[in-house]
Description:
The complex is a heterodimer of chains A (111) and B (118).
Chain A: E1 3-6, E2 10-14, E3 19-26, E4 32-38, E5 45-51, E6 56-59, E7 62-67, E8 72-77, E9 86-93, E10 99-101, E11 105-110
Parallel strand pairs in A: 2-11
Antiparallel strand pairs in A: 1-3, 3-8, 4-5, 4-9, 6-7, 7-8, 9-10, 9-11
Chain B: E1 4-7, E2 10-13, E3 19-25, E4 31-37, E5 44-49, E6 56-57, E7 65-66, E8 76-78, E9 87-94, E10 108-109, E11 113-117
Amino acid sequence: xxxxxxxxxxxxxxxxxxxxxxxxxxxxxxxxxxxxxxxxxxxxxxxxxxxxxxxxxxxxxxxxxxxxxxxxxxxxxxxxxxxxxxxxxxxxxxxxxxxxxxxxxxxxxxx
Amino acid sequence: xxxxxxxxxxxxxxxxxxxxxxxxxxxxxxxxxxxxxxxxxxxxxxxxxxxxxxxxxxxxxxxxxxxxxxxxxxxxxxxxxxxxxxxxxxxxxxxxxxxxxxxxxxxxxxxxxxxxxx
Lengths: 111, 118
């Protein structure tokens, strides 16, 4: 069955450093992958989408890479800030345009 | 901020009660979804709809039912609530136009309803 693994439940990082989150998947070849941010008690908010034919996507301080050979996506936040503290979810399109979400990585940026 | 609303935000109710969780969006999106999320766990899709009069079951089996009589409204109903239904319920919508298999648009989520069944 489809499985998504996101590295470490929690990641603590010093303000100003680059945070790198990992999303690994098995048993599927998605056409694209999405990253969302979720704050406590709130619904996820879309951040970036990367397609299978794209190696890298950037948006302001965010960068996503997609390696379909390794079945892995990396999500980077450069110059991290305490306001970046949240849970970050990766999601794959499984079928019928529905998304399958990972459990997320809880990022804490320490001032 | 997405224009998708859920009420109530919090609900504590006794076993056996019938409940309806409301979800409305003002973006004119065709596709809508209901997810269930327990603390620290992934979102599980329980229902989705391609448009008016369309409802489909998701990957996670659920005793809840949904209806889609209007584009903007996608309520979820539990006929008889049980403690095992305690969870966070998240509604979402996207601009996917229908059954055409094209890459999906992004999903916009509501704030969620935290349901506790005693």
